[in-house]
Amino acid sequence: MIKIAIGRNRTFSMKCISTIALILSFPIQHPAQVTAQTQQPGTIKQPAQPSGGVPQQSTSRPIFVLPKIPPQLSPISGRRAGMGSRDECPAVATALTALVPLQGVQKVGKQTDESMIGIVGASTASERPTFWFYVPYTQDLANLSSEFILQNSMGKDVYRNAIALPPKPSVIGIPLPNTVTPLEVGKTYHWYLKVHCQQTASVPVYVEGDIQRVNLDSRVMQQLAAADPQKKIIIYAKEGIWFEALTMLAQKRLSNSNDASVKEAWQSLLQSVNLGNIATAPLVNSPNHQ
After folding, report:
1. Does residue 197 form part of some domain?
2. 282 pLDDT higher than 70
3. Is residue 44 part of a domain?
């Protein structure tokens, strides 16, 4: 214990005590300030609420992302919806419609059922993809016939075949059979679906567009390899690979017709390319080729 003298040394002794107390207290207070400074960013981190409802919903359903239009393409390359009534064809509530994206839209006359022309078509990664259409004409109508045509860039038929009409207005799939030469990567093909309402030669109700086969890059292939079927559909849609996203989802819907989540995913995908008017239409198995 330090003894402090009383008297004239009192003032000096008290000053020493104050100085010692200040020195001893400084190392304790300083780390406390540092600690407080390092903890503040931790409290700012709280915005991490990525588990909120909106982000989860946007990634749990497929939404197609349109790729940029190549500058060399014409603003008109096809027709997504046919005329509502033509050439003795019966009137229909919803026109013959190809289930494909449409860009660069141009209206045709006063049509109100999305009978529009523009850049019609999308990409596929498949050698022999399936094409999907809403067909309002049914097999019980007399004198009606339909055919699907696929041509290469030179206008030469790659595939042509008659297509059976559905039993009721429905979405149908038309797969390319194994007898068709695989689509070449990087090549653009043109397709048609035509419905003739008379047996004699006549102007048909038709839709048309383009399809191009592409190679998937390594990043997308790795994502697909690690994904479950539902996630694969979302990846294809996000990457602009329309035909795979639609076909995989159509197959799920055909095998799980009562699954509400599958129906919601189907509607989400079609609505993302402005096909909400047929998003609830029935889906039937691919018709028999005639």
Report:
1. yes
2. yes
3. no
Pick from 54-58, 97-101, 110-114, 173-177: least confident: 54-58
- Give burial (CB, 10 Å; 0-12/13-18/19+) of 157: exposed
Q: How far apart are CA 87 and CA 105, in angstroms?
A: 25
CATH code, 94? 2.60.40.1220
pLDDT band at residue 71 using 50, 70 and 90 as cut-offs: low
DSSP conformational letter for 162:
E
* Residue 213 to residue 215: CA distance in whole angstroms: 7
In percent, the amount of the chain with pLDDT more than 70 equals 68
Residues 67, 73, 76, 81, CA torsion sign: negative
Could you tell me the residue range of the domain that residue 270 belongs to?
57-278
Q: How confident is the model at residue 106 (pLDDT cuts 50, 70, 90)?
A: low
d(CA 227, CA 244): 14
Question: How much is the average pLDDT of 16-40?
Answer: 39
CA distances from 92 to 55, 135, 210 (A): 39, 10, 25
Query: Is 274 part of a structural domain of the chain?
Result: yes
* Cα angle for residues 73, 175, 131 (degrees, 5° grid): 35
pTM given for the model:
0.75
Q: Looking at the domain assignment, is residue 123 inside a domain? A: yes
How far are the Cα atoms of 36, 105, 124, 150, 160 from residue 74, in angstroms, in the given order?
63, 12, 20, 19, 25
The β-bridge relationship of strands 130-135 and 97-98 is: antiparallel
pLDDT band at 118 (very low <50, low <70, confident <90, very high): confident
